[in-house]
Amino acid sequence: MIPYEEITDVIKLDIDNVGKYSEEKVKELLRKYGYEIDGIQVKPSKSLGMHVFIHLKQPISIDLIPFLEAMLGSDIIRSCLIQWRINHNAYLDIFFNSVGVINSRIPMKKSVNDVVKFMRCRCPELLEKLEFELGDSQKVYEFISDALN
Length: 149
Description:
- This protein has about 150 residues and is α+β, with helices and mostly antiparallel strands.
- The protein is built from 6 helices and 3 strands, in the order βαββααααα.
- It is globular and about 35 Å long.
- The chain starts with 6 loop residues before the first strand and ends with a helix.
Protein backbone atom coordinates (compact mmCIF):
# COMPACT_ATOMS: atom_id res chain seq x y z
CA MET A 1 0.00 0.00 0.00
CA ILE A 2 1.32 3.43 -0.93
CA PRO A 3 0.68 5.96 1.88
CA TYR A 4 -0.79 9.34 1.09
CA GLU A 5 0.83 12.68 1.76
CA GLU A 6 -0.36 14.30 4.99
CA ILE A 7 -0.55 17.78 3.48
CA THR A 8 -1.30 19.16 0.04
CA ASP A 9 -1.56 22.53 -1.65
CA VAL A 10 -3.97 21.35 -4.37
CA ILE A 11 -7.69 20.71 -4.12
CA LYS A 12 -8.96 18.62 -7.04
CA LEU A 13 -12.60 18.91 -8.05
CA ASP A 14 -14.47 16.52 -10.34
CA ILE A 15 -17.33 18.60 -11.76
CA ASP A 16 -19.97 16.61 -13.63
CA ASN A 17 -22.42 19.46 -14.23
CA VAL A 18 -20.32 22.22 -15.80
CA GLY A 19 -23.25 24.65 -15.73
CA LYS A 20 -23.28 24.60 -11.93
CA TYR A 21 -19.59 25.38 -11.49
CA SER A 22 -18.75 28.90 -10.41
CA GLU A 23 -15.15 29.98 -9.97
CA GLU A 24 -16.37 32.99 -8.01
CA LYS A 25 -18.28 30.72 -5.60
CA VAL A 26 -15.15 28.59 -5.15
CA LYS A 27 -13.03 31.66 -4.38
CA GLU A 28 -15.66 33.06 -2.02
CA LEU A 29 -16.04 29.81 -0.08
CA LEU A 30 -12.29 29.28 0.25
CA ARG A 31 -11.88 32.87 1.51
CA LYS A 32 -14.64 32.15 4.05
CA TYR A 33 -12.63 29.18 5.32
CA GLY A 34 -9.44 31.27 5.42
CA TYR A 35 -7.56 29.85 2.41
CA GLU A 36 -5.67 31.90 -0.16
CA ILE A 37 -5.69 30.74 -3.78
CA ASP A 38 -2.50 30.78 -5.82
CA GLY A 39 -4.24 29.76 -9.05
CA ILE A 40 -7.03 27.70 -10.61
CA GLN A 41 -6.53 25.35 -13.54
CA VAL A 42 -9.48 23.81 -15.42
CA LYS A 43 -9.24 20.78 -17.72
CA PRO A 44 -12.02 18.90 -19.54
CA SER A 45 -12.79 15.41 -18.25
CA LYS A 46 -13.61 12.32 -20.26
CA SER A 47 -17.20 12.43 -18.99
CA LEU A 48 -17.87 15.86 -20.57
CA GLY A 49 -17.45 17.47 -17.19
CA MET A 50 -14.29 19.11 -15.98
CA HIS A 51 -11.48 18.73 -13.51
CA VAL A 52 -10.58 21.81 -11.50
CA PHE A 53 -7.23 22.08 -9.75
CA ILE A 54 -7.20 24.76 -7.07
CA HIS A 55 -3.66 25.64 -6.03
CA LEU A 56 -3.44 27.06 -2.53
CA LYS A 57 -0.75 29.42 -1.27
CA GLN A 58 -0.29 27.33 1.89
CA PRO A 59 -0.56 23.54 2.21
CA ILE A 60 -3.46 22.10 4.20
CA SER A 61 -4.05 18.81 5.96
CA ILE A 62 -5.25 16.06 3.64
CA ASP A 63 -7.99 15.35 6.20
CA LEU A 64 -9.76 18.56 5.09
CA ILE A 65 -9.85 17.62 1.39
CA PRO A 66 -13.06 15.50 1.24
CA PHE A 67 -15.10 18.17 3.04
CA LEU A 68 -13.70 21.03 0.97
CA GLU A 69 -14.20 19.12 -2.28
CA ALA A 70 -17.82 18.38 -1.39
CA MET A 71 -18.53 21.97 -0.36
CA LEU A 72 -16.91 23.27 -3.55
CA GLY A 73 -19.16 21.16 -5.79
CA SER A 74 -17.07 18.10 -6.58
CA ASP A 75 -18.67 14.70 -7.16
CA ILE A 76 -20.02 13.76 -3.70
CA ILE A 77 -19.25 10.05 -4.17
CA ARG A 78 -15.64 10.91 -5.05
CA SER A 79 -15.36 12.98 -1.88
CA CYS A 80 -16.77 10.10 0.15
CA LEU A 81 -14.31 7.62 -1.36
CA ILE A 82 -11.41 9.94 -0.62
CA GLN A 83 -12.59 10.16 3.01
CA TRP A 84 -12.70 6.34 3.09
CA ARG A 85 -9.14 6.16 1.73
CA ILE A 86 -7.88 8.62 4.33
CA ASN A 87 -9.55 6.60 7.09
CA HIS A 88 -7.88 3.42 5.80
CA ASN A 89 -4.48 4.97 4.94
CA ALA A 90 -4.95 4.01 1.29
CA TYR A 91 -3.32 5.76 -1.65
CA LEU A 92 -5.54 8.64 -2.82
CA ASP A 93 -4.82 8.80 -6.54
CA ILE A 94 -6.05 5.37 -7.60
CA PHE A 95 -9.08 4.66 -9.73
CA PHE A 96 -12.30 4.29 -7.78
CA ASN A 97 -13.05 0.87 -9.22
CA SER A 98 -9.66 -0.57 -8.25
CA VAL A 99 -9.79 -4.01 -6.68
CA GLY A 100 -9.92 -3.99 -2.92
CA VAL A 101 -10.63 -0.31 -2.38
CA ILE A 102 -14.37 -0.58 -1.70
CA ASN A 103 -16.13 -3.87 -1.15
CA SER A 104 -19.71 -2.63 -1.51
CA ARG A 105 -21.41 -1.28 -4.59
CA ILE A 106 -21.12 2.41 -5.35
CA PRO A 107 -24.61 3.81 -5.93
CA MET A 108 -24.91 4.09 -9.69
CA LYS A 109 -28.42 5.50 -9.94
CA LYS A 110 -27.40 8.06 -7.33
CA SER A 111 -30.66 8.81 -5.58
CA VAL A 112 -30.23 11.00 -2.50
CA ASN A 113 -31.18 8.12 -0.20
CA ASP A 114 -28.70 5.75 -1.90
CA VAL A 115 -25.90 8.29 -1.57
CA VAL A 116 -26.68 9.06 2.09
CA LYS A 117 -26.83 5.32 2.89
CA PHE A 118 -23.50 4.80 1.11
CA MET A 119 -21.97 7.74 2.98
CA ARG A 120 -23.25 6.50 6.35
CA CYS A 121 -21.50 3.21 5.69
CA ARG A 122 -18.27 4.42 4.05
CA CYS A 123 -17.64 8.02 5.18
CA PRO A 124 -19.77 8.96 8.20
CA GLU A 125 -17.23 11.65 9.16
CA LEU A 126 -17.89 13.52 5.92
CA LEU A 127 -21.63 13.32 6.49
CA GLU A 128 -21.15 14.69 10.02
CA LYS A 129 -18.97 17.58 8.76
CA LEU A 130 -21.57 18.49 6.14
CA GLU A 131 -24.34 18.40 8.74
CA PHE A 132 -22.32 20.61 11.07
CA GLU A 133 -21.57 23.11 8.29
CA LEU A 134 -25.06 23.16 6.79
CA GLY A 135 -26.99 23.09 10.05
CA ASP A 136 -29.10 19.91 9.97
CA SER A 137 -29.71 16.64 8.16
CA GLN A 138 -32.52 18.03 5.99
CA LYS A 139 -30.13 20.64 4.57
CA VAL A 140 -27.60 17.87 3.91
CA TYR A 141 -30.26 15.96 1.92
CA GLU A 142 -31.01 19.13 -0.05
CA PHE A 143 -27.28 19.73 -0.60
CA ILE A 144 -26.77 16.17 -1.89
CA SER A 145 -29.90 16.41 -4.05
CA ASP A 146 -28.58 19.60 -5.61
CA ALA A 147 -25.15 18.02 -6.08
CA LEU A 148 -26.69 15.06 -7.93
CA ASN A 149 -28.72 17.18 -10.35
